[in-house]
Amino acid sequence: MRILFIFLILGLNSFSQEIPSKWEELTASDWPQALEKSKRTIILPIGILEKHGPQGPIGSDLIRAKEWAERVSDLEYAVIFPDYFYGQVNEARHIQGTFSLPSDLTMKLLEATCKEIARNGFNKILIINGHGGNPSFLRYFVQNQMESQRDYVIYFYDPEGDPEYEKKLAAQRTSDAAGDMHAGERETSELLYLRPELVQMEKSTSESGKDQMRLKNIPNIYRGIWWYASFPKHYAGRGETGTAELGKLITDHQVSSIAKALKSIKEDTETLNLQNQYFDDVRKSSTEN
Ligand SMILES: [Zn+2]
């Protein structure tokens, strides 16, 4: 009886043992527990390497996405995939520090990465993105998941506006929200909160983050050169107005909102079922025709 009790305690201990959330920090022997604890869910934070105004680090978007993932996983456990900074950043190739792979490779790399993640036991992959040039690419990537059947689901965190939060944000910020798109008040604040030692605030006014409006001749037409036309220095907004306090507000909101989505994803069985049903229908219609 006493021996049984000791075994029970040992068993409980090994089950409740804290394990890291970062893929690279887990041991191979932790893997079964990581899969169970995460409900086979992994976060894939995607960033980019590109200039962030005169003051921000090149990896600002990677740093932000990784920090969100770590904070989210503390609230709601999931494994976190290591540094991933391959995305759409063709518009910044004229500035040093930009890492921009060919577009077809970028798509294939993400597809192969997700397949390889799934081969390791995960069937739910939550993509969280830190880079403003990525959403169109990521939505297309998610649509491409319907091209062929797979035994996992890609979830892309693509939040709708939250009026309550927007109100708080508007009350705290000091620069114009409309022009604050890249390394401006919002993003600089996030970095000042997350990694202040990497922000060179004294340089934040050495360049202009104003819209240069160099391409306004044809309305309602989208062109790849639009960003370069408006923000050739990869600076959009006023970084000098950033504060760590604002950064905390933004980060806390982002983290709680992703954690909420992650909790639902871990419980979700409907998406994979429906995905499988869809491919059954595709097969049926293909043999009928
Ligand atoms: Zn950024």
Automatic annotation (TrEMBL):
<dbReference type="InterPro" id="IPR003785">
    <property type="entry name" value="Creatininase/forma_Hydrolase"/>
</dbReference>
<protein>
    <submittedName>
        <fullName>Creatininase family protein</fullName>
    </submittedName>
</protein>
<comment type="similarity">
    <text>Belongs to the creatininase superfamily.</text>
</comment>
<dbReference type="Pfam" id="PF02633">
    <property type="entry name" value="Creatininase"/>
</dbReference>
<keyword id="KW-0479">Metal-binding</keyword>
<dbReference type="InterPro" id="IPR024087">
    <property type="entry name" value="Creatininase-like_sf"/>
</dbReference>
<keyword id="KW-0378">Hydrolase</keyword>
<keyword id="KW-0862">Zinc</keyword>
